[in-house]
Amino acid sequence: MSEAAVTGPTTGPIRVFLVDDHGLFRAGVRAELERGAAGDPPIEVAGEAGSVDEAVAGIGHLKPDVVLLDVHMPDGGGAAVLARVRPAQPDVVFLALSVSDAAEDVIAVIRAGARGYVTKTISARELGDAVRRVRAGDAVFSPRLAGFVLDAFSDRPGAAPAVDPELDLLTRRERDVLRLLARGYAYKEIAGELFISVKTVETHVSSVLRKTQLSNRYELSRWASDRRLV
After folding, report:
1. How far apart are the first and last CA of the chain?
2. In 58-94, which positions are buried (b, 16+ CB within 10 angstroms) versus exposed (e)?
3. pLDDT tier at 224 (50, 70, 90 boundaries)?
4. Residue 126: strand, helix, or coil
5. Strand ranges (DSSP E) for 99-136?
6. Which are the contacts of 221, defined by CB distance < 8 A and separation ≥ 6?
7. Beta strand pairing status for 14-19 and 43-49?
8. What 3-state DSSP class applies to 141?
9. Which residues, 6 or more positions from 191, have their beta carbon under 8 angstroms from its beta carbon?
10. Which of 60, 151, 185, 209 has its CA at a distance of 20 to 30 angstroms from the CA of residue 218?
11. What is the C-alpha separation between 180 and 174, in angstroms, rounded?
């Protein structure tokens, strides 16, 4: 389960549909995928959407080969798109592309039917390879994330739980902020990574401190590490 290059011939371009609520990010992904590299099987971005409703309508109309799916969006996110599209279009392949590398997010979209999950730190070349691989039938995960899936679908003793009830205290965006904070990111860097303002980052951190009854970022980092968010 690596992001190594796919091998073997393909016929015609792979038609991809992008789902992400940040238009600038979609534009960058579109440019990188369609640029490709010499000798790579071509990828064509057939359409894009910034919300769950737009995604469901667009995928239904265009019937792409692969959907690149953001996990967190204001109106429901990746799992909501999967729930509404897969029953009617079981042949469409979904690959999650998210800033989040939290175990609960990975497991939720895989259970919903996604074929793989990669983070937004992936390079353009690796992303193109991941799209080609899921289209060919492989399951593709960023290296650290494969273990979450193996644990979640394993019956062996000691396997990691799919959901930590204590994390239910936090919203998804608060978890994203906490994860980056625990990695040592400054507020300005978190804001840039998540496409939000520094003031919004401060608001989320204050909320997390209040909900967890912790007093500083060092305690938050330990709390996040104990729950495998880092």
Report:
1. 21
2. bbeeeebbbbbbbbbbeeebbbbbbebbbeeeeebbb
3. confident
4. helix
5. 116-119
6. 181, 182, 230
7. parallel
8. strand
9. 197, 198, 200, 201
10. 151
11. 10
5 pLDDT band, cuts 50/70/90, is very low
Whether 37 contacts 125, CB under 8 Å: yes
In which residue are the tokens 């792409």 written?
64
Beta bridge partners, 29, equal none
Token pair 């494969």 in the structure block, residue: 146
The enclosing H or E element of 32 equals helix 23-35
**Is the pLDDT at 29 greater than 50, yes or no?**
yes
* pLDDT (0 to 100) of residue 176: 86
Q: Among 1-5, 47-51, 62-66, 119-123, which stretch is predicted with the lowest mean pLDDT?
A: 1-5
Report the alpha-carbon distance of residue 102 to residue 100 in Å, rounded. Answer: 6
pLDDT for residue 78: 87
Count, residues in the chain: 230
Whether 104 and 167 have beta carbons less than 8 Å apart is answered as yes
Question: What is the pLDDT confidence band of residue 38, given thresholds at 50, 70 and 90?
Answer: low
Q: Which of 108, 113, 51 is nearest to 85 (CA)?
A: 113
Q: 45 - beta bridge partners?
A: 16
Determine contact, residues 96/71, Cβ cutoff 8 Å. yes
